[in-house]
Write a structure and sequence with these properties.
With 175 residues, the chain is α+β, with helices and mostly antiparallel strands. It folds into two domains: 11-98, Pdz3 Domain (Roll); 129-174, Guanylate Kinase phosphate binding domain (2-Layer Sandwich), CATH 3.30.63. 22% of the residues lie in helices and 23% in strands. Strands 1-8-6-7 form a four-stranded antiparallel β-sheet, covered by helices on one side. The relative contact order is 0.14.
Length: 175
């Protein structure tokens, strides 16, 4: 008996675009989200009224803004600032794993869709304060520009799994 080779389609081929309307007499948004970089996950749909968006779908873009790598608060901010109805791009969870650490740890061909997506994720991650062991420069504020921590605190964060990535930049430990 011969084995039939099944070619797995890339997650990009499963991208769906939907418009989320306001629902009810109070005009509430017809979708709820969870996850986010602060939870080590891609943002995903936790409640949806129906239509094309499904609970569990990974959210790629909201109103044209890539949200992968953003904190949950930032994703909600983007969601709340968009004109209605809101255009949302998603992929089913089976097409793209929700775990940011796993996705960021993979090696992809430079310039590929996945490599480019990793770059978008990292850019969005760096919008938030990241931990570093270097000393603050003039005008930098801890918790705004970076979280300035000791080497011991950094290793503790890394050991506990609180960091999505870590490495050295110019000799200093950083996300």
């Amino acid at each position: 008996m011969s084995k039939v080779a099944v070619k797995k389609l890339h997650w990009r081929s499963k991208v769906q675009e939907n418009f989320v309307p306001l629902v009810g007499s109070s005009g509430e948004l017809g979708v709820a989200i969870g996850g986010g970089a602060d939870y080590g996950e891609f943002p995903f749909v936790t409640a949806a009224p129906g239509g094309g968006i499904t609970v569990g779908d990974v959210i790629l873009e909201i109103g044209g803004t890539p949200v992968l790598g953003m904190t949950l608060g930032d994703v909600r901010g983007v969601l709340n600032s968009c004109p209605h109805p809101i255009r949302i791009k998603t992929v089913p969870p089976v097409a793209l794993c929700k775990d940011l650490r796993l996705y960021l740890s993979k090696c992809f061909t430079p310039g590929s869709m996945d490599s480019q997506l990793q770059q978008v994720i990292r850019e969005n991650l760096y919008l938030r304060a990241v931990p570093t062991t270097r000393q603050p420069r003039d005008g930098e504020i801890s918790g705004v520009d970076y979280n300035f921590v000791s080497v011991e605190e950094f290793f503790s964060l890394e050991e506990s799994g609180a960091l999505l990535e870590s490495g050295k930049l110019k000799g200093q430990l950083t996300l």
